[in-house]
Design goal:
The chain has 36 helices and 25 strands. It is an alpha/beta fold. The strands form seven sheets. An eight-stranded mixed beta sheet has the order 9-10-8-11-12-7-13-14, sandwiched between helices. Strands 21-22-20-23-24-19-25 form a seven-stranded parallel beta sheet, sandwiched between helices. A two-stranded antiparallel sheet has the order 1-4. Helix 23 crosses helix 30, helix 24 packs antiparallel against helix 25 and helix 25 crosses helix 33. Bound molecules: adenosine-5'-triphosphate. Adenosine-5'-triphosphate (ATP) binds next to strand 6 and helix 6. This is ATP-dependent RNA helicase. Keywords: ATP-binding, Helicase, Hydrolase, Nucleotide-binding, RNA-binding. Belongs to the DEAD box helicase family.
Length: 931
């Protein structure tokens, strides 16, 4: 490949003839049509002679890159020359070869050397381990008519949503939710979880008589982690309530005008869907928001809600519901009565629970859920495709007698916390895998403590629970067998730090503990008394301990090992292959690490591939002023360094971008990240959802819950921060059994990251990197092979990135943000994603930059800060707490975890900034230390 280090920028006629027509078909990978200015970055002195050469003929938009004219010295000819004269150049260094070519081929222009294929590390071949992925049966084989729901709902689903057959999670979860039970649901991505909770909740609400109206207060609260997911969920509720016009859903998703939202709340709504920060914000500022009548709390993507640092907001919402309900139940007369007359236990129970369901009403009620809505109780539903210890803790704290619904094959369970079992025999998982699914009636195990029985009975009575038919692993155990006892994982009130790092360590240790357990220990355990655990606890523990992840079977998962310098062109190649060369077009989601990367790459690729000039915001003109101002004030401190770096970095002449795009079709590019203005964010999401083809470049803000139809491919340009994130990213394709593809880019140094995923039962195979650049030949037909086409495309990308100060600033920012992000990967993946193994010079190439890392870092340092305040995180800030002393203070880490954990900081990093604390803060810290 080394023979491909070429000067490729001279591609023009020897004798330019006047007249516009002739240049039309000219091969478009030309150097700048006109050189202006003094120097180019890395331009060599002997190339300056060509600086006044002009190209004739108009530039063409979406120029067809057909074969060049015969009398032109084109890239191809020059490459050919080089390959034919390989021997001649043997022993000469790269610079000499280039010089010779420059001299030989006149006229010369400002040229630089593309070293795209030089010094790249070898691509390792990673053998595939025999991993048997965990699978899930998506469709249940029964219909919505089989559920005990209103016929209007069934008809509505069929007519307006074209849904007839039930998905497995819906089949299992709907009956349990209709019973008013608290439920923890784990099911793979795209398996219909939203409908699984929305349908029964509406069923429960519509049955309330007399009919409720919008002024009746918030009956259901749905909390989701992102605005897009909030909008999507709200839209589904709007569709589902069509037959029941008296039910009003409402959206509070942040980023919108608070005034409008306040007005909406004042007008009244029954189903509130929102992001935790914004709901909490209204709890503090909007009097009309009251949860006194809230009978159902749903936390979708529960693990992410806790991971993202929304934990305090979630805790505040739970507390607000409890407080509002308590306040509404407060009845001094009843209390006096209770104290004075010592009411019977039943009366007391009625008073405390505040049940307001009359006997007459009860007889009409079909589902227990409706009764819950009429009482002072609350149902809690937690959902996610992935479980964490923090979710288990949350379940322990917020739920009463919960049921666990897990739909993965081999262990599909509906595990009831009201049912107890001894832990005995083999590991729970082994048992579950051994025995096929079967229907069962759950019965209490005989050795349940007296106290537990009473509690269970009480709760049963309270809610009038009936046994539900479903699947449980309870009956898979022979309770009399007394064998090895897995170390129980504590449930509620766990004070352990639940951040992802500690979770991981915890599980790792636990796994090691189990695998290394000596035989003698088992014997010893035999002597211990039987430990009792509810089937719920057992099932959740099993799921957590085994720590395996489920992905849709319909997704073909591959990874592509790409040397750093080739990453950008390989990305372009995949986009061309999937969105341009396919007749039908295609839809791709590309995940990147930081918002700077998202902005820069989407604009760069759009400009180069489609020829649509993206107006890069001229922040830097303004910024320079602010730098100057700053410089004046800090003159004494920074005089020398500032002036040096800024001047030298900006004293270059920018290259004129080449007009016209490389692809003839209209390729739509979209970008999405957490710092975009709300309207734009929602608009992008809706546009991409409606688009037939296009590329969405985004941060992990789009990784959760988003349901975009017909996404052909998910491309992870930057490796995810955890295996869980991998699952959610991939889950954007292959939804509801659709076929999809997932590709993950890895550097040669990152290759072993695959092993980490395999440990979690994720099976990926290696894609052939030698063919990855092939599609680029279609946009550069004059190139003799894929590598040459790649060089040409890279040149074009670099031209654009160096075409103005704004472009260069963006590119440099994106680069540094990525470097910072990379060094912040969490501990559990740092072994494979190690910043010390990065070649920062090669990385610059992947950002179409030509400067050294030191120059780039200096440039970014002198750029004005563009750090925008996060717009979608109206979380409970400590300052706000101080300002509003009346509001109940939530203890940070109230659910047994530290809010500012590594995982959350990574999420925040990828969303809102570059991943490192602002420079000022570091300087302050240093100063403090020095003092
Ligand atoms: N019974 C059904 N039959 C066919 N399609 C369905 C059914 N139920 C839901 N869907 C569709 O499946 C897709 C995925 O649903 P949904 O977004 O609820 O999945 P999810 O499990 O919440 O995914 P994630 O974990 O990614 O949030 C949606 O497009 C939805 O319309």
């Amino acid at each position: 490949m080394d023979d491909l280090q070429l000067n490729i920028s001279v591609t023009k006629k020897i004798k330019p003839k006047p007249g516009p027509a002739k240049s039309l078909d000219e091969y478009k990978f030309v150097s700048k049509p006109q050189l202006t200015g003094k120097t180019l970055a890395r331009k060599r002195p002997q190339n300056l002679s060509g600086k006044n050469i002009k190209l004739d003929g108009p530039q063409r938009k979406f120029a067809k890159l057909s074969k060049p004219e015969k009398n032109t010295i084109n890239l191809d000819a020059r490459l050919l020359d080089l390959s034919e004269n390989k021997g001649k150049y043997h022993g000469k260094d790269y610079q000499e070869i280039n010089d010779e070519l420059q001299i030989k081929q006149k006229p010369r222009s400002g040229a630089w050397i593309s070293s795209l294929f030089k010094n790249n590390p070898d691509v390792p071949k990673i053998g595939q381990k025999a991993v048997k992925p965990l699978v899930e049966k998506v469709f249940a084989g029964t219909t919505f008519a089989d559920l005990d729901i209103h016929p209007h709902s069934v008809a509505n689903l069929q007519q307006n949503l074209s849904l007839k057959e039930l998905m497995t999670v819906q089949q299992k979860a709907v009956p349990v939710i209709l019973q008013g039970r608290d439920v923890l649901i784990r099911s793979q991505t795209g398996s219909g979880k939203t409908l699984a909770y929305a349908l029964p909740v509406i069923e429960g609400l519509q049955a309330i008589r007399p009919k409720i109206n919008r002024h009746d207060g918030v009956r259901v609260v749905v909390v989701v982690p992102t605005r897009e997911l909030a909008v999507q969920t709200y839209e589904l509720f709007v569709k589902l309530v069509k037959p029941f016009t008296w039910l009003v859903p409402g959206l509070l998703s942040g980023g919108q005008k608070r005034k409008a939202e306040k007005a909406r709340l004042r007008k009244g709504l029954n189903i509130l869907i929102g992001t935790p920060g914004r709901i909490n914000d209204h709890l503090r500022h909007t009097q009309s928001l009251n949860f006194a009548k809230t009978g159902c709390l749903i936390l979708d993507e529960a693990d992410m809600l806790l991971d993202m640092g929304y934990e305090i907001d979630v805790a505040a919402i739970v507390k607000a519901i409890e407080d509002h309900k308590k306040a509404a139940t407060y009845d001094p007369l009843a209390l006096v009565k209770q104290n004075m007359k010592q009411n019977t236990e039943d009366e007391t129970k009625d008073c405390v629970s505040g049940s307001s369901v009359s006997e007459e009403q009860k007889s009409d009620i079909k589902h227990k859920l409706t009764e819950v809505f009429l009482s002072k109780e609350r149902q809690t539903i937690l959902l996610s495709a992935t479980l964490t210890k923090a979710v288990e803790n949350l379940a322990g704290i917020t739920m009463v007698d919960p049921v666990f619904v897990d739909t993965s094959e081999g262990r599909a369970v509906v595990a009831d916390s009201l049912k107890y079992d001894h832990i005995g025999g083999k590991k729970v998982s082994e048992k579950l895998n051994e025995v096929p699914e079967k229907k069962c009636i759950i019965e209490d195990a005989p050795m349940v403590k007296e106290k537990n029985v009473n509690k269970t009975e009480k709760k049963n009575n309270k809610r009038g629970l009936v046994e539900f038919s479903g699947l449980s692993h309870l009956d898979l155990f022979d309770v009399k067998v007394k064998e090895e006892i897995p170390k129980p994982v504590p449930m509620a009130n766990n004070t352990e730090n639940s951040d992802s790092d500690s979770d991981y360590d915890y599980f790792k240790v636990q796994k090691q503990f189990e695998s290394k357990k000596p035989a003698t220990e088992v014997v010893e355990k035999d002597l211990e008394p039987l430990v009792k655990e509810s089937t719920f606890q057992k099932a959740v523990h099993t799921a957590l301990v085994e720590d395996e992840l489920i992905l849709p079977e319909s997704v073909n998962q591959t990874f592509l090992i790409v040397p750093m310098k080739l990453r950008l062109v390989t990305l372009c190649s995949l986009i061309v292959e999937n969105c341009v060369l396919k007749k039908k077009g295609g839809k791709i989601i590309v995940f990147m690490a930081t918002l700077e990367m998202v902005d820069y790459h989407s604009e760069l690729i759009e400009t180069v591939l489609t020829g649509d000039k993206v107006k890069v915001k001229k922040k830097d003109a303004k910024g320079k002023k602010s730098i100057d101002k700053k410089r004046k004030t800090n003159k004494a401190e920074n005089e020398e360094s500032d002036s040096d770096s800024t001047e030298s970095d900006y004293n270059i002449d920018y290259e004129e971008p080449v007009e016209g795009g490389l692809v003839p079709v209209n390729l739509e590019m979209f970008s999405l990240h957490g710092s975009m203005p709300h309207e734009r964010r929602i608009e992008v999401f809706k546009q991409f959802r409606a688009a037939r083809n296009g590329v969405l470049i985004c941060t992990d803000v789009a990784a959760r819950g988003l349901d975009v139809p017909a996404v052909d491919m998910v491309l992870q340009y930057c490796a995810p921060v955890s295996a869980t994130d991998y699952v959610h990213r991939v889950g954007r394709t292959g939804r509801a059994t659709q076929v999809g593809a997932a590709v993950m880019f890895l550097l040669p140094s990152e290759a072993e990251f695959v092993r980490h995923l395999e440990q979690r039962r994720i099976r990926l195979c290696q894609a052939d990197e030698s063919k990855a650049l092939e599609p680029l030949r279609s946009v550069a037909p004059a190139a003799a092979n894929a590598a040459r086409a790649a060089i040409a495309v890279q040149t074009r990308l670099e031209h654009t990135a160096h075409s103005s100060k704004e472009w260069l600033a963006r590119a440099s920012r994106a680069y540094t943000s990525w470097v910072r992000f990379y060094s912040g990967y969490p501990r559990e993946v740092r072994e494979w994603l190690d910043a010390r193994k990065l070649h920062l010079g090669h990385a610059a190439k992947a950002f179409a930059l030509r400067d050294t890392p030191a120059v780039l870092a200096r440039r970014v340092k002198n750029l004005p800060s563009v750090k925008e305040k996060p717009t979608n995180r109206l979380t409970v800030h400590r300052e706000e707490e101080k300002k509003r002393p009346g509001f109940p203070r939530m203890k940070i880490g109230g659910y047994g975890s530290n809010v500012t954990n590594k995982q959350s900081s990574m999420h925040t990093a990828s969303e809102y900034d570059s991943g490192l604390p602002p420079l000022e803060r570091i300087q302050k810290q240093k100063k403090r230390k020095n003092k």
